[in-house]
Write a sequence for this structure.
């Protein structure tokens, strides 16, 4: 795969001292940034989506919902959703050469190096090309300027969607995440009703509860303790600004403040992306 080979060549000449932030700590409500008013967000013309291979990136703090919305949009657009977090977890569950190294890094809330992430992403792109995939929605990559530069050298990114959520709500949401140890389903037991204050509107998010047969099998991810989550969020908030500015300066960044849970946010996101009503209804009932 020519693109992957270029990616690997580019990465090989870069210093290995750079590291990737696997977001991690609580962001005070008053530190959540208001979306920039300049330059203007990219505008997607109606009817254009189905006639091209979207190459999109989703940014946002851990637990904000990148995976949920990227996955829904990938089905709508007919392109694969590639989440670097999933790539890491898949490697952790395998007997691959990086398994033990990744386990130590993730369990301690540390950073995963660019080299490891690039290796996992390159493998996924090669597998996708072999299956005839074209286009993608990247979730969790890039997280550093170096990664953004590597990606720019091998792909023409159309749009970067930056999801935002109040810090206090985000922390509560992260701590409510649960996984079914049997089926692998993802759920959230948090029932969020945050009052409007300090210029921020009230936000309500209903829990995403499991079916009865999964209730007794729910587990918490080992890296979803309050201490680790707060550290992730702190690091992400600190490190995200350069990457956001990288894409903002290129006119590719669209900032989107989540107004609530999926029922409130999904229609608004589709509207911001200029997807028509028919496509929205088809996706919403899927």
């Amino acid at each position: 795969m020519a693109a992957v080979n270029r990616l690997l060549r580019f990465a090989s000449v870069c210093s290995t001292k750079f590291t990737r932030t696997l977001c991690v700590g609580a962001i005070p409500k008053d530190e959540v940034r208001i979306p920039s008013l300049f330059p203007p967000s990219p505008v997607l013309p109606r009817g254009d989506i189905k006639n091209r291979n979207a190459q999109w990136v989703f940014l946002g703090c851990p637990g904000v919902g990148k995976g949920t919305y990227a996955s829904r949009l990938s089905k709508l657009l007919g392109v694969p959703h590639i989440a670097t977090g999933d790539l890491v977890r898949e490697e952790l569950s395998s007997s691959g050469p990086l398994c033990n190294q990744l386990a130590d890094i993730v369990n301690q809330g540390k950073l995963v190096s660019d080299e490891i992430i690039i290796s996992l992403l390159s493998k996924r792109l090669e597998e996708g090309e072999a299956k005839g995939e074209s286009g993608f929605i990247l979730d969790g990559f890039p997280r550093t300027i170096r990664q953004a530069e590597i990606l720019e050298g091998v792909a023409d990114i159309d749009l970067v969607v930056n999801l935002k959520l109040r810090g206090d709500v985000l922390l509560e949401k992260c701590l409510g995440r649960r996984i079914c140890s049997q089926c692998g389903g993802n759920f959230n037991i948090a029932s969020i009703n945050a009052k409007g204050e300090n210029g921020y509107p009230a936000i309500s998010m209903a829990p995403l509860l499991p079916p009865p047969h999964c209730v007794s099998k729910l587990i918490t991810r080992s890296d979803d303790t309050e201490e680790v989550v707060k550290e992730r969020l702190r690091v992400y908030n600190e490190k995200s600004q350069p990457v956001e500015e990288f894409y903002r300066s290129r006119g590719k960044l669209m900032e989107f403040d989540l107004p609530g849970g999926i029922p409130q946010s999904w229609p608004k996101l589709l509207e911001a992306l200029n997807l028509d009503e028919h496509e929205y209804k088809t996706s919403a009932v899927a």
In short: The first helix runs from residue 2 to 12. The longest strand covers residues 159-164. Confidence is low (pLDDT under 50) at residues 8-40, 45-52.
